[in-house]
Every structure is written in structure tokens, then in C-alpha cells.
Design a protein that fits this description.
- There is one protein chain.
- This protein has 381 residues and is α+β, with helices and mostly antiparallel strands.
- It has ten helices and 14 strands.
- It has helices spanning 3-16, 21-33, 40-43, 54-62, 67-78, 157-172, 187-196, 310-314, 318-329, 341-360, and strands at 17-19, 64-65, 88-98, 109-112, 123-134, 144-151, 176-180, 199-203, 209-211, 229-231, 243-248, 254-265, 268-280, 292-298.
Length: 381
């Protein structure tokens, strides 16, 4: 990445603004430069925002952004330094924006609030956004946002994620592995990934029911549609692993990875999957440190996942969690007081544009360490 390439990317971004381009672009530059601002009016104090503060709200209300052109621009820019045959790692997840006091805001839904015990109740009211991110090789907050869409109350997170993959994956032109949390281990999501030729690695709920190939028990009648049950929470159904791998971790505790093939969900019998079980003897067996974890991937895929690398490969997904935290804490994603969901969708695109520019310009800047930070401290956005 050099300055000329960054200028070209910024030109593509400006061209994707179909209405209110100057104000939207100034807002993005203000967000990039004013790291002490904590609200939209404070962003208007940036020297790069050449208007009065009401122009921010006017741009978010009346501006128009071509999301398809913006998506293509980010794919070209973020993948410019990746070889044609190299595997692309992406993740998809949903994040919530609480809006409990915005009673006049439209299309608010029930959302989950995970920051307990700070949150009095684990649920709130607000909006949800689904994000497809380009993952770095290590778990950091240096992510690239390929697509971001709001999940309306008439949609589901799985449906929006499937639509996003259908729009993004054909543009990548490289082998793709999709990482996702256990909520995405559904028949619809796996079917779409198989149609697009993607490999997946998704966490699996321990009590999720899968089925082995059907076995004829009688010479009469048709062959059963499903075979014996396979369910992690019922050990009597988990037998005959086709492969296993065992090693000691850094603490000297035994880690065992087992694999089963030829399984399927009842809702998608044509999609054959592999299931991995990871057992860690040294784990505390809590929600954050489980002793037993389950994962699922597609069987009909040219990309193979070695047993020894299942846990390390899935650990790359946590970059999305780091990215979400940076968007909310430093780029003011959830702190903007905007009334309508359409306005917040434009603000979300502005935040993603700022994030991607920071990622592209990472090598052009100079790190400013604070006094308590060592020179070997991991560089963050």
C-alpha cells in the first residue's frame, strides 16, 4: 500500500456517494482525525469538516450511498496485496446497537445485551447489523469490512448473512473459508456456502442433532431418509471417530481432536458435513473456557482442515469481536444519536469506510507509544 493507492481508494469512496457527497466525505475524514471527539457535534469541530454542525445530520438524513459500488471498491482495495490463489478468510456475525430511550425510532427490535453484569437485563431494544469482515492472519482488530447491512425486524440474521455472502463471495475470485459462531450452524447457511463453493468452520451446539447415512433395516419399503442419531450431548450416539489427533498444550495438558464424516442435518440432507470434537483436559469447563467444543465444516469442499489446526484456525474469528469493540469504543459507532434506521445505516457505512481506510493506511503511519506501553506492544488501529 502506498499513498497513490490510498488516493485511488478515496476517489472510489467519493464516487459511491450519490447525494451529499462533500458533507459525507468530510464527516468520514473528521472521524478519521478527531480521536478525542465523543459525539457528532464534536466531529464538526475538525478542521477537515468544512461546514457547520447541522450539516452532519443533514448529510445522514438526505445523503445517498451506492452500497454495491462501495462493496466492489473494498474488495479491490483490501485484496490488492493477496495473491490470486491464496485462501481468503472471512467471518460473518451480527452486532447490536441498543436504542432503549429512542421511543420514536422506527423498526426497533428485541436485542441481546451481553455486557453483564453492567447491563441490568440481558435484553434491550435497538437495531442489529450483520457484518462480513476480512480477517487478518492473527487475532487483532485490524479487520476489513467487506459488507455491512442492518437486520430489520422482518428479517433474520441468517437470511441477511446468506444474502451478503451471495453478494461478496463472487467478487473475491479466490478460495474462501467462512468462520462463524454457533448460531450460523443451520441448514440454510450451510446450503448457501456449499452453493457458493466456500468452506466453512462453524461452532456447533453440543445438543444439536445430526444424522448418519441411512441404513436399510428391512427388505421391504423405502430406504429411511435419516440414519442413526448423532448428538454431542448424548455420548451413546457418538461412536466410531474416523480420525483422532492428540497432543499436549503449552501447559502440558492433553488436547484431543476427533472427526466424524458423512453426517447431515435433517433440514438439508443433501449437504454432507464433517464434525470435529475438541477436548481440553486443562480447561475450567466454564462458558468461556469449555472442556469440550464442537465444530462443523462442509464435507464436499476441496479445502481440507487438518485436525491439528482446527482450534487455531477458528481462533482467527475472534478478530471480528476485536473489530466490533474498536468500532464501538473508538469510532463512535453506537454513540451517534440518530433518529431513523436509514440514517443509522448511512452512519454505519461511514464508520466502515473509516475503519477500512485505517487498515489500508496502516503502513503509512507512525506508531505513537504512550509512556506505559512497551515498544513491543501490539499495534492497534
Amino acid at each position: 500500500m502506498n499513498s497513490n493507492t490510498l488516493k485511488q481508494v478515496r476517489q472510489w469512496v467519493y464516487e459511491s456517494f450519490e447525494q451529499g457527497a462533500d458533507a459525507l466525505f468530510n464527516l468520514c475524514d473528521a472521524l478519521l482525525t478527531e480521536n478525542q471527539a465523543r459525539s457528532l457535534p464534536e466531529l464538526s469541530q475538525s478542521p477537515l469538516f468544512e461546514r457547520e454542525w447541522p450539516s452532519i445530520y443533514q448529510a445522514l438524513s438526505n445523503g445517498r450511498i451506492n452500497t454495491a459500488a462501495l462493496r466492489e471498491a473494498w474488495v479491490k482495495a483490501l485484496l490488492s496485496d493477496i495473491a490470486a490463489g491464496e485462501t481468503i478468510w472471512i467471518s460473518v456475525d451480527a452486532s447490536s446497537i441498543p436504542r432503549p430511550e429512542a421511543e420514536k425510532s422506527q423498526d426497533r427490535g428485541i436485542i441481546h445485551v451481553s455486557n453483564l453484569p453492567r447491563a441490568v437485563k440481558p435484553i434491550s431494544v435497538g437495531w442489529q447489523f450483520s457484518t462480513v469482515m476480512l480477517l487478518p492472519s492473527q487475532a487483532t482488530s485490524w479487520v476489513g469490512i467487506l459488507d455491512q447491512q442492518r437486520i430489520s425486524t422482518e428479517q433474520t440474521a441468517i437470511g441477511v448473512a446468506c444474502a451478503q455472502l451471495r453478494a461478496v463471495v463472487p467478487l473475491l475470485g479466490r478460495p474462501v473459508i467462512v468462520l462463524a459462531d454457533r448460531w450460523y450452524a443451520t441448514a440454510d447457511f450451510l446450503r448457501v456456502c456449499q452453493e457458493l463453493g466456500c468452506q466453512v468452520l462453524i461452532r456447533l451446539k453440543r445438543n444439536r442433532k445430526l444424522y448418519q447415512p441411512p441404513v436399510r433395516k428391512s427388505a421391504k419399503g423405502r430406504i429411511p431418509l435419516d440414519g442413526p442419531l448423532f448428538q454431542g450431548s448424548r455420548p451413546e450416539t457418538v461412536k466410531g471417530a474416523e480420525a483422532s489427533w492428540m497432543q499436549r498444550d503449552k501447559k502440558g495438558q492433553i488436547v484431543t481432536v476427533s472427526r466424524w464424516s458423512g453426517l447431515h442435518f435433517r433440514q438439508a440432507r443433501e449437504v454432507h458435513v464433517r464434525v470435529f470434537r475438541v477436548r481440553r483436559e486443562g480447561a475450567k469447563d466454564t462458558k468461556r473456557d469449555p472442556r469440550e467444543s464442537w465444530f462443523v465444516c462442509l464435507q464436499q469442499s476441496p479445502l481440507r482442515l487438518p485436525l491439528a489446526e482446527v482450534t487455531s484456525l477458528y481462533a482467527r474469528r475472534f478478530s471480528q469481536e476485536h473489530g466490533y469493540r474498536y468500532l464501538k469504543q473508538d469510532l463512535l459507532w453506537g454513540k451517534a444519536h440518530i433518529r431513523t434506521p436509514e440514517q443509522f445505516e448511512r452512519w454505519s457505512l461511514i464508520v466502515s469506510i473509516a475503519m477500512n481506510q485505517l487498515r489500508l493506511a496502516r503502513d503509512l503511519g507512525q506508531v505513537c507509544y504512550r509512556r506505559w506501553e512497551g515498544r513491543q506492544h501490539t499495534i492497534t488501529p
